[in-house]
Every structure is written in structure tokens, then in C-alpha cells.
């Protein structure tokens, strides 16, 4: 990956689709490649907001803690996604921490360079605004679905959220390739790991999902609607 053509790789990012080859060539000179092993930290909450990251391969977990030190926000980043957008043009520090959930490869560009690029390209700014609107809509739907009273429903709706944010269509099912554990789903849904395990077992028995090699395959997406 390190030696592959950077412009070719940048074209795989949907958010950069409005940039022409000259724009990408200009961007290329400020791009740096890095790899991280599973569990490595990219940045911590309140670290200086110095880099915009472009994930090439693997998955990243974003987390924010409250004053008591417990996690109250968790999100995930999949390949060919730019992050973070929190505080763009405004804040000096990251809003949350980022951890490699798997081995990953990525590019990064200095944040001030990226912000200058956005200022000079109205189409890119428009695409970013649309992207942020999509993120907001997804999280509004997430809040609506996982603030249910019944623990079983919160777990199933957490799986729905993961399907919407990380799922990839493959033949007759949608696959969540990101290695999400029962503990991760429990954190998202505000339930216990035991509850999540029981719900996953029930969904497997009913043929709603399948699990293999830490992947979740959604066989009946209509179940979560």
C-alpha cells in the first residue's frame, strides 16, 4: 500500500469525488502514509487537532468519555472514510479518542492544509456538509432506536445501527466485516454482555443473523426495521 499511487488511492474516497486530478496531485504532496497495529491509539481526546485521517484499510473505533471516566460515545470508521470532522475550522483539540480496532493503513494530511483545501473548493465543502448531514441523521436515528425501554430491543437496534454504518452488501446478505464483540454491542446498547450474547443466540436460531470469523451477517434485514 505504501508504494502504490497516492492519487489512485485518493480516488477511492467518495468524499473526494469532486476533486479533479490536478486537485488530487496538489493534495498528494501533503499526504503521509502510516500503519498501526490493532489496539494502537491514533490520538486521545483533547490532543491537538493536527491531522485529518483517510482510512485505507481496517477499522477504527472512536470513543469519548464523560467526567466520571466512563465511555458514553462510541462510533466506528470503515475504509475509505475521512475523519475526524468534529471541530472543523474551529476547535484546537480532538473531541474524542481514536483506536485501531484492527491492523490499519491510512493516509493523513495536516489539518490546516486540509482546511485550506476545503476553503478553496466549494464542491468539496458542499460534499462535506452533505456528509455531516448524513452523519447527523444516522445518529439521530441511533438515539431514537436505542433509547427503548426493553433491553432486547436496544440490542437489536444497536445491530441495526452497526449494519447502517458498517454493513456491506454481499449477495443475499449484509455483512458487518468489522470485528464487533458482544462487549462492544453492550456498550452501544447500554446493556450487559450477557444480554447481548442471549439476543445474538436467539437471532442466530431464528436465522436473522449468522456469525463467522468475528463477522456478523444480516440475513433478514427487514427484522430490524
UniProtKB/TrEMBL annotation:
Residues 149-222 form the HTH crp-type domain. One of its GO terms (molecular function) is DNA-binding transcription factor activity. InterPro entries: cNMP-bd_dom (IPR000595), cNMP-bd_dom_sf (IPR018490), Env_Response_Regulators (IPR050397), HTH_CRP (IPR012318), RmlC-like_jellyroll (IPR014710), WH-like_DNA-bd_sf (IPR036388), WH_DNA-bd_sf (IPR036390). Transmembrane segments: none annotated. Residues 15-118 form the Cyclic nucleotide-binding domain. Keywords: Activator, DNA-binding, Transcription, Transcription regulation. Gene3D superfamilies: Jelly Rolls, Winged helix-like DNA-binding domain superfamily/Winged helix DNA-binding domain. SMART domains: cNMP (SM00100), HTH_CRP (SM00419). GO terms for cellular component: cytosol. It comes from the Bacteria. Pfam families: cNMP_binding, HTH_Crp_2. This is Transcriptional regulator Fnr family protein. The gene is arcR.
Amino acid at each position: 500500500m505504501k508504494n502504490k499511487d497516492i492519487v489512485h488511492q485518493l480516488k477511492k474516497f467518495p468524499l473526494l469525488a469532486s476533486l479533479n486530478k490536478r486537485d488530487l496531485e496538489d493534495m498528494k504532496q501533503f499526504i503521509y502514509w502510516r500503519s498501526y497495529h490493532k489496539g494502537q491509539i491514533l490520538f486521545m481526546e483533547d490532543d491537538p487537532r493536527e491531522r485529518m485521517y483517510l482510512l485505507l484499510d481496517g477499522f477504527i473505533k472512536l470513543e469519548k468519555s464523560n467526567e466520571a471516566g466512563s465511555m458514553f460515545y462510541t462510533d466506528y470508521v470503515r475504509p475509505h472514510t475521512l475523519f475526524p470532522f468534529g471541530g472543523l475550522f474551529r476547535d484546537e483539540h480532538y473531541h474524542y479518542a481514536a483506536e485501531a480496532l484492527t491492523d490499519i493503513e491510512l493516509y493523513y494530511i495536516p489539518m490546516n492544509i486540509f482546511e485550506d483545501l476545503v476553503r478553496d473548493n466549494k464542491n468539496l465543502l458542499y460534499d462535506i456538509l452533505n456528509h455531516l448531514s448524513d452523519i447527523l441523521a444516522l445518529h439521530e436515528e441511533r438515539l431514537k432506536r436505542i433509547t427503548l425501554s426493553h433491553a432486547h430491543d436496544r440490542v437489536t437496534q444497536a445491530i441495526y445501527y452497526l449494519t447502517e454504518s458498517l454493513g456491506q452488501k454481499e449477495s443475499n446478505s449484509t455483512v458487518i466485516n468489522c470485528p464487533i464483540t458482544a462487549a462492544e454491542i453492550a456498550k452501544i446498547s447500554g446493556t450487559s454482555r450477557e444480554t447481548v450474547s442471549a439476543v445474538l443466540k436467539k437471532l442466530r436460531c431464528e436465522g436473522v443473523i449468522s456469525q463467522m470469523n468475528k463477522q456478523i451477517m444480516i440475513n433478514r434485514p427487514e427484522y430490524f426495521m
